[in-house]
Amino acid sequence: MTDKNQVASSVWPPKMVVCVGTVVLKEGRALLIRQAEGHSLEGQWSVPWGIVDPDEAPETAAVRETQEESGVTAKVEGLLGYQNLQTPGWIGIAFLCRHVDGVPIPDGYETDAAAYFSLAEMDALSEPIEPWCDWLVRRALNGEHQVIFPEPDNPYQPQMAFL
Fold it and tell me: So what's the pLDDT on residue 1?
């Protein structure tokens, strides 16, 4: 018989990588960043995204990654959804955000370009947009999504809850 403590320690902490991304909207346009040379999506446009640090809330990580990769300060408006990613053990959480401040500028390390795009500008873009990000941003710009808004009355009182 297996000791209950051995089982608990073999599965905790969970072995999962949590990535977060943001669809930041401003005046009918969405923020995209282009991945710099040497990065996993090199040369492709995508939403700002990154990995949640230990002891960091996903929505905090999403805002941090947006600021780091694009120079834009964003505010989380709600949860767009959750996605199993193609790499086993990796999940993605997408947040709908609004522009608060800043002009899109790449960080020069992870990103080499950052800008807001309308649907027409996305259609005219000669460079590739990462397919999932393209699909997600088009849905957001077309209003083809449901947003789960933060729930401030949650009795648990987390930093943010989307229920």
Answer: 42
